[in-house]
Amino acid sequence: MQEVNQMLSSTSVDDKGGNQFKKRDALIELEAKAQKKWDTLKVFESDAPEAGTQEFEDKNKYMCTFPYPYMNGRLHLGHSFSLSKCEFSVGFERLKGKNALFPFGFHCTGMPIKACADKLAREMELYGCPPQFPTEESSNSGVEKKSKIAAKEGKYEL
User: Fold this and answer.
1) Widest distance between CA atoms in the chain
2) Residue 117 has pLDDT above 70, yes or no
3) Domain for residue 39, yes or no?
4) Is pTM beyond 0.85 here?
């Protein structure tokens, strides 16, 4: 921690703007050092001991899962909020000496994937593969706008 404070305190920006990226560069250098140390110590690797061994019986276990994001949905802030809580708890339990496991994957079965496949099939029928999208000049500009009432009652035709 002392090294971090020393690096950051020595990175002031002068009035001429010559050192404007010095603090950023110091943080990038610090990140690279930390990642190298983590790789050397294998901090984020977890090998499960064999079942039936004394190590397996002695070591406390901890597992955390994350609700998988659907592949046809978009990631949003809620995903990172939930994910950060899982990552923190797994890291904390690992620091306490537990054999912590955090499996992560993506959900790619069921109705959301079917809906996504159907949408892609419709788009391929409409625009071809590879797609040839219509230009603005060739689109139907003479088609009337449909009102909400007509749309609800199904009284419009293209």
Assistant:
1) 78
2) yes
3) yes
4) no
